[in-house]
Amino acid sequence: MNLNRRQFLKLSGATAATLAVVELGFNDLQAKAATKKLKIAESKVTPTICPYCAVGCGILVHTKDNDVIYTEGDPDHPINQGALCSKGTSLRNMFTSEKRLQKPLYRAPGSDKWEEKDWNWMLDKITSNLKKTRDASFIEKENGFTVNKTDAIGCLGGAALDNEETYLLVKFMRGLGLNYIEHQARI
Amino acid sequence: MEYIKYIDVTKCDGCRACMVACKNWNDLPAEFEEFHGSYQSHKKTTANTWNVLTFTEHVTADNQFEWLYRHSSCLHCTDAACEKVCPENAISYTEYGSVVINADQCVGCGYCVQNCTFDIIELATKKDENGKEYKVAQKCTLCTDRIAEGLQPACATVCHTDAIMFGEKDKMLKLASERLNQVKERYPNANIYNPPGVGGTHTVYLLAERPSVYDLPENPETSYTAKLWKDVAQPAGKLLLGASVMGVVGAYLSNRLFNKEVDESSLNEGGKDDEQK
Amino acid sequence: MIIGANPAENHPISFKWLLQAQENGGKIISVDPRFTRTSSKADMYGALRSGTDIAFIGGLFNYVIENNLYHKEYVAKYTNASFLVHPDFDFEDGLFTGYDEAKRSYDRATWVFQRDAEGKILKDETLTNERTVFQLMKKHYSRYDVDSVIAVTGTDKESYLKIAQTFGATGHPDKTGTIMYAMGTTQHTVGSQNVRSYAMLQLLLGNVGRPGGGINALRGESNVQGSTDFALLSHILPGYLGVPTASAKHATLKDYIENETPKSGYWVNKPKFIVSLLKAFYGPNATPENEFGYHYLSKGNKNYSHISMFEAMYNNEIKGLFAFGQNPVVGGPNAGKEQAALANLDWLVAVDLWETETAAFWTKEAGMNPADIKTEVFLLPAAASFEKEGTVSNSGRWMQYRWKAIDSKGEAKADLEIIHSLATRIKKLYAGDTSAKALPINALYWNFGHGDHPDIDLVAREINGYDTVTGKLVANFTKLMDDGSTASGNWIYSGFYPEDGKNLSKRRDNKDTGMGNYLNWSFSWPVNRRILYNRASANYNGQPWAKGKEVIWWDDLKQEWAGYDVPDFLKTKAPSAAGGMDPFIMLADGVGSLFGALNEGPFPEHYEPYESPIPNAFSSQEFNPTIKVWTGKRNDKGGIDKYPIVATTYRVTEHWQSGAQSRNQEWLSELVSDMFVEMSEELAKEKGIKNKDKIIVTSARGSIEAYAMVTKRFKPYTIRDKQIHQVGMPWHFGFKGFVTGAIANHLTPHIGDANTMIPEFKAFLCDVRRAD
What we know:
The complex is a heterotrimer. Chain A is built from five helices and eight strands, in the order H-E-E-E-H-H-E-E-H-E-E-H-E. Chain A has helices at residues 14-23, 86-89, 91-96, 119-137, 163-176, and strands spanning 44-49, 58-64, 67-73, 105-107, 115-116, 139-142, 145-157, 178-182. Chain B folds into two domains: 1-226, Alpha-Beta Plaits, CATH 3.30.70; 242-277. Chain B has helices spanning 17-26, 81-85, 111-115, 144-148, 154-158, 169-183, 224-241, 243-268, 271-276, and strands at residues 3-8, 51-59, 65-73, 91-93, 99-101, 122-127, 133-138, 164-168, 191-193, 203-207. The longest helix of chain B has 26 residues, at 243-268. Chain B is globular. In chain C, 23% of the residues lie in helices and 14% in strands. Chain C is of the alpha/beta class. A six-stranded mixed β-sheet of chain C has the order 23-25-24-29-22-28. Chain C has a three-stranded parallel β-sheet with strand order 1-2-3. Among the domains of chain C are: 2-209, Dimethylsulfoxide Reductase, domain 2 (3-Layer(aba) Sandwich); 224-300 and 435-493, no CATH class; 534-583, no CATH class; 645-770, Barwin-like endoglucanases. Chains in contact: A-B, A-C, B-C. The interface between A and C is large, with 119 and 168 residues.
């Protein structure tokens, strides 16, 4: 039984937009919906890949008025063919959750609370700390070998980053001289 | 055209995407319940949780262990007690076979909640513009809004095992009976749950075990009082409204049906547009 | 066969395809210590006590060999079964030849093949010589007869035999079978050998490189494949190049290349890959004169893996930590200790979508007194996956593009931008500095656009690789050179962006190009190949082993390999040519390694988990003789006197990893909203525990409180007349989010696999009691 999950009656609403994803490319995915009744009728549809496990399912993100109004399985994706599990289905929540962090937060030594700070302040303070710790711990040569390392700084994580991000991260951290570079694949 | 949601519980692997898809499509809030001692999240469907996956640990007669799942949601009865008891006519059947509640007409009396054969409907508490609380009955709509636009219900679209399928009634029932033969070897008590006592349903199950194992009534019937109210008292009332009103309603209905048929036949045959391409 | 994995719960859409295979007549076997949602859909279920995979698989080796079920032609030519092993290689009482007890490691001098005067390996393709790998393997696993095996694993005999028979039948050339595994396999002190045992079974049955075959690691995070390929790990550089160490063998680039490049197999090209990587890292600052900047790379002198990192942090050796979306306060082994270690930091930078338990480790709700903690904490809001652009690589190595759907929520920024901003700022701080410590940073080639906004396209081009003179993109890694004329940030990905305007990860042609390979959908490394070692899908003559099992085949007319996939073989090398029957091109010998050395030895041998409820029945070596045993504070080992119950941790469909994502979202939180511990009705009765009671679980590391979930899905094991109980629990819970609960990893130990140091989350000892 191979029921076409995209449609059972006719093409309309979200399905028309879905077709556009494949046939027209992705630059402008305005849904040309025939109706105003469906909540996704005039949404912009963008394909993405599920951020949870590594099966790699396709998801369509419906956005409208700077909000994510619906997320659903990408019917054109050869792996999931429109289906998703409970986690993939919940993707919309990742945007709408009231618990999303929206501002950089800083906690001073000994403090019992977070403070909101602006990005520049945070980035400058982090890099100044980083330089201080690195300079204090840097070893150029050890037992006759050039080692150019610091073993006083660690870097954790990255299994949910994009490839391009992991590449920059590894280049940056190796460039600094870190050896403690680890992420979720180890545990 | 009459459609049904066909649920083959033997294919379900319990992922609960159907529960999330329903909330996502229908913009429903989460409801946190106490720990139930199993993987089940909600004891039963509620006004804001329109389908619940039930988890049942079952030992069969020949001492085989089975972990059984069931997507529990409105069965969309053909003779729906909720529709019959509603004093405001807020509950109606659609052309697709779904049973829907019109929130604007609902006064939150709770008759439908009390009379639901399968204990599905519940009242949601909402607030009006003035902050005043009011009640409204809510349940699965079979995604009638989606059906009207040619989409399947959100729970069927998302299901990765084809445990939830949606389609024309005859086709789905045929699938169910074919599948029944296939699963009998593993599940000798398997059966199709489409109870005649409520005139059949538009959510039809292929169950792996007897209905009672899934907390479903073995031989449900639309309650006598519900029938009495709707099938005797209300028609009598309508008679009092006069023939002209009924005439308008009848014409409206037939017009709707006729138009729908035209739409579909042209689509089914491909239509002119297709030929020109 | 699904073993050490639970795809119905943790990789549900992979299970979609398993269920379809089942409808087509395939059989699903679920082997697991507990009955899962996967087990409920399987055709057969085999219970095995946690930590006994090698016994289970060793028994299958024995069954398959004794019953002549192995794929004889495949084994004879495509594996090293026929190779003759050194005459002094031996095995006795759990130890192979060459063990040094003081060092807890082996001298591998005898773990080698016999060679003739010209250095060619001696073989016996009849497989009868008693020094052949095949005969040694047969002898080794003759100890793993069914009764001995089930006396260790606790599997009931009927189920075991049914599984052996069913999976063994895939040794027929007409059939294939696959093995799916995940963390249930790897998170053991013998994790690497567990995986190896599966691979060996598949070689024995001729199931590697064939459609519907292989061993499939079901990876748990959207890009954990990519982040591994890109080497966010202490022991490797991008593309699985070994990290250079502070040692004589790596003293110079020349030394590194000489000592790390094998004499045969595809890795002979390693010099091209390492030099191109150095050119990508250091750009024009990498010259032949300075060994292409080789000395700028950090060189370590010890183990730097996760457990080691936190032991060092606990001992005050680490002062600063970046955490990009990782949450060790919940997800780390011995998490209580890891949380305490964080308090020794001067600073912590956490980059996440949520306030994780790790970011909040210093708070009262974390059980700490904030005033005592001097750590400066920076929490940077990160963009969600659909709020930025980039690629992720799935378990099948498909590199898929994600387009940006919406601007980031609030002030959240993409990690790419955060990393770029930090790098450009630190380079600015060191600008003009000529001291030794400044040189490596000043030399780092960072050319990804202006200001704080990196151009992802420039990153993609550097990964793919380019000609360093013309700047033109290289077609793929076969064009990389070792003279500095090319740069490539990750050779295995080279080819995804072969020319301007052609980023193949963006492809969305979903037409099946044959056997479900979808060659025009996205890009799969290497060079868009979907099935690795697919030369093995064809027989000696280059023809498919069976009808309906075609992947590639030798086209005699065209004199090249044709088929449904990119050949994992030199396209024009005929089966009759030299090496034309050596499918495993990445290996020096060109064949699959039935005999292949990991730290514990060339054949997987059963050892009990570090914390075990019962003595090892196979030898007097109780646990893996080559693991590092951590000493010092908070590394206590639990014994059966106090902790008689086996415990294991796992995940559920509705939550993800440490729960940071899922517990901060309502729709997932409501589905599983409480921390629970699953146990059998028998154990519950023994302990006076009722379903839904609050209980306390204790181990040598700590104790947690949770709800009891009493279930028929857990059963006690009867092992050599002793009843052994097992409990299990999810490790998703913590103290932040919509739903909270005790952290399971407060119970787990700092003990890791001997090769990878992956922690033993899956088998440790505990005790349970009612909370009141």
